[in-house]
Amino acid sequence: LWSQVLERLQLQLSRPTFETWIKTASAEQLTDNCLVLRTPNPFARNWLQKYYIKTISDVVQDILGQPVEIQLLVTAGDDHSPISDTGISWSVPIGSSVSEGISNSPPRLPELNHKYVFSRFVVGSNNRMAHAASLAVAESPGREFNPLFLCGGVGLGKTHLMQAIGHFRLDKCPDSKIFYVSTEQFTNDLIAAIRKDSMQSFREHYRTADVLLVDDIQFIEGKEYTQEEFFYTFNTLHEAGKQVVLASDRPPNQIPRLQERLCSRFSMGLIADIQAPDLETRMAILQKKAEYENIRLPRSVIEYIATHYTSNIRELEGALIRAVAYVSISGLPMTVENITPILNPPIPKVKASPDTILMTVADAFNVSIEDLKGNSRRREISWSRQIGMYLMRQHTDLSLPRIGEEFGGKDHTTVLYSCDKIGQLRESDATVDQTLRQLSDRINLTSQTKN
Ligand code: ADP
Ligand code: MG
Questions:
Q1: Keywords for this entry (predicted)?
Q2: For 354-363, what is each residue's pLDDT tens digit?
């Protein structure tokens, strides 16, 4: 039951919230009318009690079909001190989160995140056109902009807009078939269909969509067979006047190894790009987020966070969540002084050579460069390898496949998985963040002295 509950909650809550507060709890006992949950410490218990108990019990009730009382216990004899100088530190130590991260294969992605709706999207000069186009497509799909191609950097709202289109359609027309898939998932479905000899149903499935939303289409690069199949899916839908929306971190003509015919299909509707938000927009986003989460924020705090997180809205939101968590745990008032120590504004990333990165990581974790390029699955080695991939993504412009090559010919999905995983851990675990900062510092230093 608890894993079902977790799955649902994961869809409903933001990732930092989920990782920090929900995932650390475990189910202890379930009787007819009472579910007992164990939390790692008193702060976590109070926090859950205060903010999430209603959400949890709603979900449980939904699953069980009857109301259930939720009781929260605290693990006894927990010797983790809940607060340290760096902030929240009871999260799993690096070692254990690695193994945990690997064994928990990622659940199938949620269809649509209920938070990704138009009303929660803040419009600024950076995204005005993408927003307007998305709204137009949502209002009359298959008409004006088909396909709609959204492009922009990581964490700037592509997925949000895309899913907002889906929500909007479902509100208007609850029966319409809205498919939201990542390119990864499309590929996996395709592979599964080939394996199970069920291509027919694969095709039928995708071709019945009224609106097909495909996220991170840049990952189609180099996948010949996926491109082939997607081309036919696309054409079928397009000819039938069905809407296709694509999101990518770059425009079609900059996706390497993309078939010419797909590139031209992708470009025949509207390409709308999203830029990094300006200060005013960032402040408005924080303001709105705080309103939805019922958090009172002084203007000085909003300003502070917004000035320090400039290029990625996901990080901006993550900073807000961390700040809120910190003051609530420490009992301090929400002021700029009190949250400065834990916010750690992003440090600039100097471009570095892959060798510098490999050397820095090998050195820091006391492993050899051969280890990083090899296939050992020993925990320390695969952990440092994943960190290395993440840092290479941050400090170079190399594509995922190229990064895979630097690590002795790993598949690009392995690289993607590592980068995602480390990125997520970084958001939820202050020690991981600290480690990455130190490594980035060293890489910056080495690269600067070299130049
Ligand atoms: P992308 O798909 O471009 O990487 P996402 O759509 O996942 O980015 O957005 C990252 C986070 O930032 C999400 O939580 C999203 O709700 C939020 N976000 C992005 N842009 C906006 C915006 N304009 N207004 C409100 N929230 C936003
Ligand atoms: Mg996205």
A1: ATP-binding, Cytoplasm, DNA replication, DNA-binding, Lipid-binding, Nucleotide-binding
A2: 999 999 999 9
Chain centroid offset of residue 155 CA: 8
What's the length of the chain? 451
242 is in an annotated binding site: no
Task: Quote the tokens at residue 90.
Answer: 């009871």
Helix boundaries (H) for 105-254:
128-139, 158-172, 183-195, 199-207, 224-239
Q: Does the annotation place 233 within a ligand binding site?
A: no
- For residue 36, how far is the Cα from the chain centroid? 30
* 377: its two tokens: 């699955």
Let me know if 33 is exposed, middle or buried by CB neighbors in 10 A (0-12, 13-18, 19+).
exposed
- pLDDT for 347 equals 66
Q: How many CB atoms lie within 10 A of CB 227?
A: 17
pTM beyond 0.90, yes or no: no
| pLDDT confidence of residue 93 | 27
Pocket test residue of 156, 216, 219, 288 for ligand 1, highest count of atoms within 8 A of CB: 156
pLDDT in tens, 164-181: 999 999 999 999 999 999
DSSP-based three-state secondary structure for 54: helix
Distance CA 207, CA 203 (A): 6
Residue 145 has pLDDT above 60, yes or no: yes
Which of 182, 313, 321 to probe ligand 1 with, by most ligand atoms within 8 A of CB?
Answer: 313
In terms of Cβ atoms closer than 10 Å to its own Cβ (0-12, 13-18, 19+), residue 101 is buried
Distance CA 130, CA 225 (A): 30
Q: Is the predicted ipTM greater than 0.90, yes or no? A: yes
Burial class (CB in 10 A: 0-12, 13-18, 19+), 175: exposed
